[in-house]
Specification:
Layout (H helix, E strand, L loop, with lengths): L1 H18 L1 H16 L1 H12 L3 H25 L9 H4 L7 H12 L2 H19 L3 H29 L5 H19 L1 H8 L8 H11 L5 H10 L3 H31 L20 H7 L1 H6 L5 H16 L1 H23 L1 E7 L4 E7 L12 H13 L4 H5 L3 H6 L4 H31 L5 H25 L19 H19 L1 H13 L5 H39 L8
Antiparallel strand pairs: 1-2
Length: about 575
């Protein structure tokens, strides 16, 4: 069965590549990039072999732990990574068994990520050969399969298990907790400044972290040969036994995960209670009770636009796929603030003999924070406007309700933009004023506020157009937002993000160029002119984007719906 599952995995992969050019291109580019890294890694391994054995042990142990953790974190962070031969897809053809669990694990290791990881895990042997330690090199080769098995079993157990739960609420909670964990890991680069003494360029803290990672179960396999090279045979033997036992411990865990996902219901359907409290008699009161925001928004927009906005607002506070995006924006704000707070600033002192440059700590005390905080507002404006760039895909086949009702495309586009602007604009405004309070530079607030609103409107316009022209696959309603898809659309999403960043940056030049001029010349009083200019530019571009996107939606609504129905899980959404 193991050989059959490996062959089936590659047959499925090749079929997907034949039918999806984007998936093929993404796989080719990813595999080429990974293989291109092998040469510098080998050269680095040879160089590391000439260093002290203790240093090489710490580096390799930390790298081994990072690889193992990466097998768990990357699939949770990326949408569209390979999930071929998911145990759930095997439930209709066979019963769960230990042979099936073993075959699925081996098939998971035989994909492109597994092959590249296996090659990387062989590189430490080069390090120990360069160091003149053949015993350590041999032990490294013997432990490489155990390290790969640990990566596969741990990663598959966590990722596959994270895709299901016994209830809808359980899946939502699991997704949000997983996302919080991923965002916490993303703070790691900023936290490195806390363990590095940047002023004296001392790496003692980083060395301690690497040593600690090497002694965790994640780094045992790559750290054990290093201790053998240092003559610590007892420690090496203990780590070797632990590294070999770890896959044996994870194998039953993986088997239980396979049994759980193959025997549990694939989807828990519960009746929505959105209309439970609505009056029994028909009429306007029922609509007001179901969508209370509709009446409020009708004061500033038309009825159809307000209805779409009210429905989308309900999603933004209840759908985990939307909540994950809200958490992401808040986490980015915290991350950028932390990066500024944990970095060092430069202070220059000029004397007759010359100029001295010293490093000083950055303070976030109100009135003393650096002006770089204002940049956070511009970045978040871009991210907030970007949130609805695939909103039609989030609707899934529910888009049919708009089509059947004859809703104008412009009302759909304006309604979705209004739904996010209701809560995003106050958030962005509060952020700019907080930055002004922390920096004490209130005179800079009008300029940055105008540029921020202009950039936000341009990002909304881009999202209004691209969500109609370039929708890409996302998880269907009710599914874990952290679950991986198999169509290779991660490459499409990345390409769309790069293209969108360039286009938005170009269209924002009328507000960004004046801002740069004001910053360089410190002519902040002119910011009061940039404020209304940015508002008019952002609002005008957002309106044009909604009109253009609405026209495209009127023409392509059937095609968009047909595309959505081809995605796994959306035909029954």
């Amino acid at each position: 069965m193991v050989a059959t599952l490996v062959a089936l995995r590659w047959r499925i992969t090749l079929n997907v590549l034949r039918s999806n050019i984007w998936a093929a291109l993404g796989l080719i580019l990813g595999a080429t990039g990974a293989l291109a890294l092998l040469t510098p890694l080998v050269l680095g391994a040879v160089t590391l072999g000439r260093a002290d054995p203790a240093t090489a042990t710490q580096v390799l142990g930390g790298v081994g732990a990072a690889i193992t953790i990466g097998w768990t974190v990357v699939p949770l962070l990326s949408t569209g990574v390979d999930a071929t031969l998911d145990p759930r897809s095997m439930a209709a053809w066979t019963a769960p068994s230990r042979t099936l669990s073993l075959g699925l694990a081996v098939a998971g290791a035989c994909g492109v990520p597994g092959i590249v990881t296996g090659l990387v895990l062989l590189i430490p042997a080069v390090t120990w050969l360069a160091a003149g330690q053949p015993g350590a090199a041999l032990l490294s080769l013997l432990l490489a399969p155990a390290s790969l098995a640990t990566c596969v079993l741990l990663g598959r157990s966590v990722v596959i298990r994270a895709g299901v739960s016994s209830s809808r609420r359980g899946r939502d909670l699991l997704a949000l907790l997983g996302f919080f964990a991923v965002m916490a890991l993303s703070l790691l680069p900023s936290l490195l400044n806390l363990v590095l003494d940047a002023e004296h360029l001392e790496l003692g803290g980083l060395v301690a972290v690497a040593r600690g990672l090497g002694l965790t179960p994640f780094g045992w396999a790559l750290a054990a040969p290093g201790y053998l090279a240092q003559g610590q045979a007892a420690t090496a033997a203990l780590l070797t036994v632990g590294a070999l036992a770890l896959p044996l411990v994870l194998a039953p865990v993986w088997h239980r995960v396979v049994i759980r996902v193959m025997t549990a219901p694939t989807q828990t359907r519960t009746r929505a209670h959105a209309y439970a409290d609505a009056p029994s008699h028909p009429g306007r009161a029922a609509v007001g009770a179901v969508l209370p925001w509709q009446r409020r928004l009708e004061r500033i927009s038309s009825g159809p636009t307000a209805a779409v906005a009210a429905r989308c607002l309900r999603y933004w506070r209840s759908d985990p796929r939307y909540l994950v995006q809200v958490v992401a924006v808040l986490a980015v704000a915290v991350l950028l603030t932390g990066m500024i707070a944990t970095n060092y600033g430069f202070a220059t002192d000029s004397y007759d003999e010359g100029t001295t440059v010293t490093l000083r700590d950055v303070s976030l005390t109100p009135g003393q924070a650096p002006g770089a905080l204002f940049i956070i507002g511009l970045i978040l404006a871009l991210l907030c406007g970007w949130m609805i760039h695939d909103d039609l895909a989030f609707d899934s086949t529910a888009l049919w309700t708009h089509i059947s009702a004859g809703l104008p495309g412009r009302s759909d586009r304006l309604g979705r933009a209004l739904a996010v602007a209701v809560w995003q604009l106050p958030l962005l405004l509060a952020l700019i004023f907080v930055c002004g309070w922390l920096t004490g530079n209130w005179v800079q607030v009008p300029a940055y506020l105008g540029a921020m609103v202009g950039m936000y409107g341009v990002a909304l316009a881009w999202s209004s157009v691209t969500s109609v022209l370039l929708p890409y696959e996302t998880n269907p309603p009710g599914e874990n937002p952290m679950k991986s898809r198999t169509s290779g659309t991660a490459f499409i999403a990345a390409l769309l993000q790069m293209l969108g960043t360039v286009v938005i940056g170009v269209v924002c030049l009328p507000v960004l160029v004046p801002l740069i001029v004001l910053v360089t010349r410190e002519a902040w009083l002119w910011g009061w002119l940039l404020l209304p200019a940015g508002v008019l530019w952002g609002g005008g571009v957002a309106w044009c984007g909604a009109v253009l996107g609405g026209r495209q939606l009127d023409r392509r609504c059937a095609d968009v719906l047909a595309t959505i129905r081809t995605w796994p899980g959306h035909d029954a959404a």
